[in-house]
Amino acid sequence: MKDDVWYSGGGLAGFLRGAGRAVDDVGRLRRGWHWRGPRPASWPEAASAVPDRPSNLSWARQEPVRSIRLLIQRGLMMPFTEAMTHPQISGSEWVEDLERPAILAANHVSHADTPLLLHALSDRTRERTAVAAAADYFYKRPWLGRVVSLWLNTFPFARTGGAQAVLHSSTELLHSGWNLLVYPEGTRSVDGRLQEFKPGIGHLAKETRAPVIPMHVRGSHRVMPKGQRIPLPAPVRIRIGRPLEAGKTEPSRDFAARIERAVQQLAAESDDPEIVGTWIDRWRATRPMRG
């Protein structure tokens, strides 16, 4: 029984024996824990318990950065995207000349999606579009966050945690006259199938009364599938649907589901006038804005 009690024997000798056993136990625990060893694939990436809150990076939407980005996109991104994918675009009249700031809601299967979708916009619309980028992916490394903000006019969008800060920054941008390109699925699809849209897209649209333009990109998973770092040439098709607006009494979750169905129908090559509009609707969308 004496050996089982760390303070057996009493006095200084007993205390030292107990302390030595405690040190041994801690050593065994550390050796078994593999602090810096391989992590199971199912575990999330290691991160700070309280990560730094990324800034809204408003500098990316001010001069001379806007002019620099215009040169980068027109001189490099657009020609490269055209050469690599020769994208076929239908429904471009819906993003030709927007009367008011809109939310562009698209499916997401590849890092190539953003350059492709921006390619589908008119110059005027593209220049006034900010892109929601995952804060825990692109802004975990400050230098990467600055690069994508300069190149694509991104702003950090938290995929986890409280939605209030995300709603606040998105609302500010819409009220300031910026269109928002968002991916309501929250992350890239691994198999290309559309995932359920998060209800936040419906809440944002109802709070700001902004129209939502559904978009679908097909073929981008061949250009840059998940895990691929170098883009590959492949044909791409982009379909753009008519703007959707939430009903006054329509719940946010129901509106998010309606946006999801519109993107699904674009993916299915539907020509339903409720999704793509009639020829009269499309003609009206191409009329120059007054003033």
Structure description:
This protein has one domain: Glycerol-3-phosphate (1)-acyltransferase (3-Layer(aba) Sandwich), CATH 3.40.1130. The protein has twelve helices and seven strands. 42% of the residues lie in helices and 11% in strands. It is elongated, with a radius of gyration of 26 Å. It is of the alpha/beta class and 291 residues long.
Helix-strand blueprint:
Elements lengths: L10 H23 L31 H21 L2 E3 L12 E4 L6 H7 L3 H5 L1 E6 H4 L3 H11 L1 E4 L6 H12 L3 E4 L17 H9 L3 E7 L1 H4 L13 E4 L11 H16 L5 H4 L2 H7 L6
Parallel strand pairs: 1-7, 2-5, 2-6, 3-4, 3-5
Antiparallel strand pairs: 6-7
Helix pairs in contact: 7-8, 8-10
Q: Could you tell me how far the N terminus lies from the C terminus, measured between alpha carbons in angstroms?
A: 94 Å
DSSP, total strands: 7
- Using the coordinates above, name the CATH class: Alpha Beta
Mean pLDDT: 83
> What's the CATH superfamily, by name?
Glycerol-3-phosphate (1)-acyltransferase
Helix/strand/pairing category: alpha/beta
Strand content bin: 5-15%
- Total helical segments: 12
The second-level CATH architecture is: 3-Layer(aba) Sandwich
Keywords:
single chain; 291 residues; alpha/beta; Glycerol-3-phosphate (1)-acyltransferase; 7 strands; 42% helix; disordered N terminus
